[in-house]
Specification:
This protein has 246 residues and is of the alpha/beta class. Helix content is 27%, strand content 35%. Strands 4-3-2-5-6-12-11 form a seven-stranded mixed sheet, with helices on both faces. A five-stranded mixed sheet has the order 1-10-9-8-7. A hairpin with a 6-residue loop joins strand 9 and strand 10. The chain starts with a strand and ends with a strand. 39% of the residues are buried. The mean pLDDT is 95.
Length: 246
Amino acid sequence: MTHVEAYSRLAGVYDEIVIDPCHDRWASFLHELWGTDPEGVRSVLDLCCGTGLLAGELIARGYRVAGVDAADAMLARARERLGREVALSRVTLPDLAVEGVFDAAVCTFDGLNYLAPVQLRLTMASVALRLRPAGWLVFDLHTDAMMNFTISNPDVAGTSAGNDYVISSVVDPGTRTCDTTIELTRPRDGDPFSERHRQYFHTDADVRACLQDAGFAVTAVGAEYTHQPADASTLRATWTARRLPA
């Protein structure tokens, strides 16, 4: 089995294997949330935009979206989905070389869990520079409950859209890291391959400190794109923050 760079060959089957049908629901949550802003939200920066699933939902709701991602293969899929008129850039966080100032920024599907703690802190500061005063930052993160769930369920196997796969995770609670190997044991197209991904389980205290230092105020921490407060059972927490005036 060939080992390839993360999110290279996986991009071709990502929407079929990794993603559940959630983006319509998540976009509706964001649309309702931003509807409370008297200044209005029109422009959105989609961090770690992947194959453009959320961007497509936001564009359908009337937002002007720019997307960034570190993987060329994922951006290629996003361009197929969104068209050439949508600004998409290859960016590796914390570098955020994009033009303009946005009303909101989002990062979904645990994109920020791929950042080491120092990178997370620098990324928050970079995002703040790209938002207007009182601009929105909404993102999700895996929680301690997800860390414990992954420890208890390290291996997942299945078949989706003609692809047989195995996802195996090794969690180190001491370093709060998770090394995941995604193996396409029998892809629908092409030869078998595997990718390895590293993620970090950030503590709530660290996330709050990063946001505060970057000039954000946390307004809510909810259970996966709902207004229900996150609790000890929440696997994916949704953080909402506003950029403070300079």
